[in-house]
Backbone:
């Protein structure tokens, strides 16, 4: 039985204009990500990985082509509607963690749920559960500057998955971590993928991530060069 | 959550936040102090003006306010007494005649802009002149004599007991009488101390040919009762009479006080405009510093409206902190000025503060009302929020895709 595609890109092109020069960042990308998938997007710097993520995450609009998330074409959505889509359907994990520095680990994870309008009691249950799962039960009330890089990235993952999004987009999540911490983070993502069915798409240079991802999409010059699914 | 974030964001830059809040707060403290002093001193001046030249409400012949002619008079002032007593028995009613006159002595001559015929017994309860006697005594009922200002006495070179010749022009023509100086007053108002004198009402009525009529029935209650009293009298008195509140009866003084208030508000508004620019700068810097963070918030789903609101809440909090500082400094200082007063000399550099022919000496006392404090408090917090509109708009328009990649 084929799985439902939750992300579909059809002939997506993105051209940035720098002065009088057009710089193509994506060249007719077609891509489908099934529900519950776990894929790594690799490629050299400038190959279009981040641009691809920006398109899928509704942070940017394609020059041509369409991006569809769970049957919803993003090109027709307003900025507010895109923000709402990101709030309910997309989780982001950034290379530099990008936690809100004035909030504790607990509050960072809670923020998304609060913005969704979830009642405090339900939020407490969900946040405590996810922070326990990512191994930060005892650090819930620490601010980002009181935590290591690996711990901060775990909080970022908790923030990305706490609202049960359709897809989690992780841009170079292990780039700032040592191999041991990076490996532990990957274990955690795989576990969330297996146990909660969360879909993960990871942009990476990290061979370990590529090795452990069941599907690896390789990009070169804004196009998908190879798309391999491991047995 | 938004409130928590806003408060912590402000606290991130403690020094900058406190400095801005302090500037804003001290400006507000100054507003509170100036409001109190302005209202207090204006009430003092209005009170002096009312006691000297009018009442809280005055009843005059219709058209007297414009023409100031003796023919336009109140023929039956005692009837008004009865009506006023029926409305409010606590109101003090004084019958007066105002006329122009000249005083001569062997050594000089003084022109009187206001020769006032008064009922000494009633007038003593409210008189500004009685309070400021520096030689001799205030008039007694039925007593022939005149009370003059210190400047007039100096020019005429007279003292209590000396005679002066009073010349005036009444309904029946010119009248002249020799009159003993009974007392000398000093109010510090140049115009009053020179050109204002009082004689007994019956003497004035006789000299001016007024029979039992007067030019003014002055009613003394308090500022709060003024409008209601005037309204009640308008309903009950004849259409041949004009009923004026003190502001209508003393338009020059009223305009002077209004102008004084207006100039104070213009000055305070200018100060606040400068401070608002400081707030704008602080909030804008805070937004610019957090471009990446705001980009991340947008990326994870915060709507532009919510981002704008977040910035506005931060500014409102800053305003509230400033308000607390302003009230903490302004109210105690104001209380001191209300209880102990401020020496006018220390404040203005002169012995008196004079405007529209009314002079205030000694100390000015602050009088702070709740309503202006409430409105200006709301205004100040609103001003800080207004100052945050541009930074908020800028933050709301950030493109997350570029903002999150800022370093």
Residues:
């Amino acid at each position: 039985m084929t799985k439902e595609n939750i992300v579909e890109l059809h002939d997506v092109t993105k051209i940035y204009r720098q002065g009088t020069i057009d710089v193509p960042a994506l060249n007719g990308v077609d891509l489908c990500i099934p529900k519950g998938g776990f894929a790594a997007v690799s490629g050299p710097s400038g190959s279009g990985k981040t641009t691809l993520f920006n398109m899928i995450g509704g942070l940017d609009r394609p020059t041509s082509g369409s991006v569809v998330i769970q049957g919803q074409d993003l090109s027709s959505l307003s900025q507010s509607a895109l923000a709402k889509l990101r709030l309910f359907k997309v989780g982001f994990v950034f290379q530099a963690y990008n936690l809100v520095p004035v909030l504790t680990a607990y509050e960072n994870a809670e923020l998304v749920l609060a913005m969704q309008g979830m009642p405090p009691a339900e939020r407490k249950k969900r946040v405590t559960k996810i922070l326990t799962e990512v191994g930060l039960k005892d650090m819930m009330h620490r601010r980002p500057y009181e935590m290591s890089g690996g711990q901060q990235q775990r909080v970022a993952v908790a923030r990305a998955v706490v609202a049960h999004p359709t897809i989690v987009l992780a841009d170079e999540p292990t780039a700032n971590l040592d191999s041991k911490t990076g490996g532990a983070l990957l274990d955690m993502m795989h576990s969330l993928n297996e146990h909660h069915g969360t879909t993960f798409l990871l942009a990476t240079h990290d061979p370990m991530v590529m090795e452990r991802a069941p599907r690896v999409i390789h990009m070169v010059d804004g196009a998908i060069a190879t798309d391999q699914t491991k047995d | 959550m938004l409130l928590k974030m806003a408060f912590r964001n402000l606290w991130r830059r403690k020094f900058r936040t406190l400095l801005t809040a302090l500037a804003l707060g001290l400006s507000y403290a100054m507003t509170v102090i100036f409001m109190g002093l302005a209202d207090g001193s204006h009430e003092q001046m209005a009170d002096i003006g009312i006691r000297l030249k009018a009442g809280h409400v005055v009843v005059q012949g219709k058209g007297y306010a414009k023409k100031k002619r003796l023919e336009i008079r109140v023929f039956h002032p005692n009837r008004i007494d009865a009506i006023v007593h029926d409305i409010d028995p606590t109101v003090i009613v004084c019958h007066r005649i105002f006329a122009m006159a000249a005083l001569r002595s062997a050594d000089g001559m003084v022109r009187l802009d206001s020769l006032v015929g008064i009922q000494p017994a009633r007038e003593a309860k409210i008189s500004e002149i009685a309070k400021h006697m520096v030689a001799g005594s205030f008039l007694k009922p039925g007593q022939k004599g005149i009370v003059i200002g210190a400047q007039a006495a100096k020019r005429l070179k007279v003292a209590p007991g000396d005679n002066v010749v009073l010349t005036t022009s009444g309904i029946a023509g010119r009248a002249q009488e020799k009159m003993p100086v009974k007392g000398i007053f000093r109010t510090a108002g140049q115009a009053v101390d020179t050109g204002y004198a009082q004689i007994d009402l019956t003497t004035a009525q006789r000299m001016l040919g007024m029979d039992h009529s007067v030019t003014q029935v002055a009613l003394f209650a308090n500022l709060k009762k003024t409008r209601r009293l005037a309204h009640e009298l308008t309903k009950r008195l004849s259409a041949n009479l004009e009923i004026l509140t003190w502001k209508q009866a003393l338009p020059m003084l009223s305009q002077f006080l209004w102008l004084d208030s207006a100039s104070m508000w213009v000055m305070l508004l200018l100060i606040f405009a400068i401070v608002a620019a400081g707030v704008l700068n602080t909030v804008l810097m805070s937004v610019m510093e957090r471009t990446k963070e705001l980009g991340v918030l947008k990326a994870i789903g915060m709507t532009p409206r919510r981002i704008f609101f977040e910035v506005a809440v931060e500014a409102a909090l800053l305003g509230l902190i400033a308000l607390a500082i302003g009230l903490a400094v302004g109210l105690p200082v104001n209380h001191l000025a209300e209880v102990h007063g401020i020496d006018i000399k220390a404040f203005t550099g002169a012995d008196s503060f004079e405007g529209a022919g009314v002079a205030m000496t000694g100390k000015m006392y602050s009088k702070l009302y709740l309503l202006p404090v409430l409105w200006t408090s709301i205004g100040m917090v609103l001003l800080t929020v207004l100052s945050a509109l541009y930074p908020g708009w800028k933050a709301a328009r950030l493109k997350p895709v570029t903002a999150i990649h800022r370093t």
In short: Strands of chain A lie at 5-18, 21-34, 38-42, 64-69, 72-73, 90-93, 167-171, 199-203, 215-220, 223-229.
